[in-house]
């Protein structure tokens, strides 16, 4: 019989909300996905509570038997206030949403909230590809670029919880932004999977998404391989800068494309190790994330547990 303490993990993405029970050892069970209503007829918080209510009922759970709720979410997250800041990522109607307060009030247990990239980093260092390491950079490649940084065993959060927004540091300073908030020089503008598709389109290639590009590259198409090489260079350039700032033991690559070991992870590893200064390259690991869709939920619960241990 599993007597480990259990928590509710919630992972809010742009399309689905994932729910699961996560125990104190990082094991995720009783998963459920709830689609986000993008028509605007239901707020994201209404979708979350409706999903949690159904999840608890389905599995015969009482929220009061759980130790707490950990929420992972896209966008800039004010961890102290438990709410979403102005930048709500790709989640519709998510900006300025209060989250932890309403959840705690409804279910009678404490809740915390953190950025999804930070949660992935925490999860991978807890039970995943970076287990046992104390200095880790996690880069999550998707429509945008997310990530998290763990230094000396501690998640870097900054003053308000916004730390680790690596998708928004400029890597193309020569393209002077026209106004504050212009994203043309941001890392994710050049390193996200949407940037890969953009490179293919600019080259007159017929592919409409990353999957088609990788398929063509696997078949040896020279244009696909060239586009991938250019894109991987952009990813490597940003990671090289982060390595020189934080001196990690490992760089973990997340997102669906991280499953492309031969076409992405291997050439990316080679480029990074060539680009970083030799002392930084010594012993540096670059590898794919291990936890897949469970990472957000597990990391959210790890954030909850770590927050409570700080208060003790």
Short description:
By secondary structure, the protein is an alpha/beta fold.
Describe what you observe in this structure.
This protein has 312 residues and is an alpha/beta fold. The protein has helices at 44-58, 100-107, 116-127, 187-191, 193-202, 210-218, 222-246, 261-275, 278-281, 295-311; strands spanning 6-12, 16-23, 28-35, 69-73, 77-78, 83-84, 111-115, 136-141, 145-151, 154-155, 250-254, 285-288. Strand 9 and strand 10 form a beta hairpin.
Walk me through the topology:
Layout: E1 6-12, E2 16-23, E3 28-35, H1 44-58, E4 69-73, E5 77-78, E6 83-84, H2 100-107, E7 111-115, H3 116-127, E8 136-141, E9 145-151, E10 154-155, H4 187-191, H5 193-202, H6 210-218, H7 222-246, E11 250-254, H8 261-275, H9 278-281, E12 285-288, H10 295-311
Keyphrases for this structure?
single chain; 312 residues; alpha/beta; 5-stranded mixed sheet
The proportion of residues in beta strands is 15-25%
Order of helices and strands: EEEHEEEHEHEEEHHHHEHHEH
The separation of the N and C termini measures 28 Å
Helical amount among residues, as a percent range? 25-40%
List the strand order in the largest sheet: 3-2-1-4-7
- Count of helix runs: 10
Based on CA inertia axes, which overall geometry fits? globular
Mean pLDDT: 93
Spans of at least 5 consecutive residues whose pLDDT stays below 50 are none
Structural class: alpha/beta
User: How many strand elements?
Assistant: 12
Largest sheet: 5 strands, mixed
- Compute the gyration radius: what is it? 20 Å
């Amino acid at each position: 019989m599993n007597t480990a303490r259990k928590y509710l993990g919630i992972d809010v993405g742009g399309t689905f909300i994932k729910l699961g029970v996560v125990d104190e050892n990082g094991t995720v069970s009783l998963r459920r996905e709830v689609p986000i209503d993008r028509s605007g007829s239901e707020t994201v918080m209404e979708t979350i509570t409706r999903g949690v209510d159904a999840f608890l009922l389905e599995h015969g759970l009482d929220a009061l038997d759980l130790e707490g709720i950990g929420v992972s979410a896209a966008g800039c997250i004010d961890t102290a206030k438990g709410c979403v800041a102005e930048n709500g990522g790709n989640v519709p109607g998510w900006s300025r949403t209060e989250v932890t307060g309403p959840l705690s009030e409804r279910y009678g247990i404490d809740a915390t909230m953190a950025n999804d990239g930070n949660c992935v980093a925490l999860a991978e260092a807890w039970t995943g590809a970076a287990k046992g390491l104390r200095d880790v950079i996690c880069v999550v490649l998707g429509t945008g670029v997310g990530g998290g940084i763990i230094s000396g065993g501690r998640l870097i959060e900054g003053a308000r919880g916004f730390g680790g927004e690596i998708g928004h540091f400029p890597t193309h300073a020569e393209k002077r932004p026209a106004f504050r908030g212009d994203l043309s020089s941001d890392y994710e503008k050049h390193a996200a999977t949407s940037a890969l598709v953009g490179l293919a389109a600019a080259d007159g290639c017929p592919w409409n998404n990353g999957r088609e590009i990788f398929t063509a590259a696997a078949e040896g198409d020279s244009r696909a391989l060239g586009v991938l090489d250019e894109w991987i260079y952009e990813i490597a350039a940003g990671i090289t800068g982060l390595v020189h700032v934080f001196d990690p033991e490992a760089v973990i690559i997340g997102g669906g494309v991280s499953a492309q070991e031969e076409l992405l992870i291997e050439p990316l590893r080679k480029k990074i190790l060539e680009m970083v200064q030799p002392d930084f390259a010594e012993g540096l690991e670059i590898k794919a994330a291990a936890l897949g869709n469970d990472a957000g939920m597990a990391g959210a619960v790890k954030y909850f547990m770590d927050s409570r241990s700080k208060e003790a």
